[in-house]
Design brief:
CATH topology of the domain at 23-46 and 67-134: OB fold (Dihydrolipoamide Acetyltransferase, E2P)
Domain Single-stranded DNA binding protein Ssb-like OB fold: 26-125
Oligomer: single chain
CATH class of the domain at 23-46 and 67-134: Mainly Beta
InterPro entries: NA-bd_OB-fold (IPR012340), OB_Ssb-like (IPR048970)
Protein name: Single-stranded DNA binding protein Ssb-like OB fold domain-containing protein
Order of helices and strands: HEHEEHEEE
Strand order of the largest sheet: 1-2-3-5-4
Pfam family, one: OB_Ssb-like
Helix content: under 10%
Strand content: 35-45%
Number of helices: 3
Number of strands: 6
Length: 151
């Protein structure tokens, strides 16, 4: 009895090259974006500490200390968008820094788009880019409304 050779999945899976997109191509509810952007400015929004809703201190839930949050305007030559930086990401988002956002997603906040990188993505500081940020096309200033379409 002959047995068919089954190819090993480890040998056949090759890593795909990341596809980089421009800011103006971002749409609500999408994810998996790779972008190279410049930081225009960064504002610390929240550094939480003390008790949370459960009555326990947040230090017991997060051993790294209080959660830090910053809103950063980032962009490229096609447009700009607000990026929500969390914890260690806040330190990387210095004005005029060029960063690579890998596996970024679009979150909706009060009807407008925000760019974010969660635990499945990565933020890397890279060499300074030679483009200017187009602040005229700020995608976070566009308000979206959820419309249910009945069939």
């Amino acid at each position: 009895m002959a047995t068919a050779a089954v190819p090993s999945t480890a040998a056949t899976t090759e890593k795909k090259k990341p596809v980089f997109v421009k800011v103006d191509s971002l749409k609500p509810g999408t994810h998996g974006h790779n972008l190279t952007v410049k930081v225009v400015h960064s504002n610390t929004v929240k550094a939480t500490g003390g008790a949370n809703r459960g009555g326990r201190s947040s230090a017991s839930l997060n051993p790294r200390g209080p959660a830090r949050l910053a809103e950063c305007l980032v962009g490229d030559d096609t447009g700009s968008i607000l990026f929500t930086a969390r914890n260690e990401q806040v330190d990387m988002m210095k004005p005029d820094a060029t960063v690579i956002l890998r596996n970024a997603k679009i979150d909706m906040f009060k009807g407008s788009m925000r760019l974010a990188v969660d635990k499945w993505g990565r933020v890397e500081v890279t060499e300074p880019a030679d483009f200017g940020v187009n602040e005229e096309n700020n995608l976070s200033l566009v308000e979206y409304e959820l419309v249910n379409v009945e069939e």
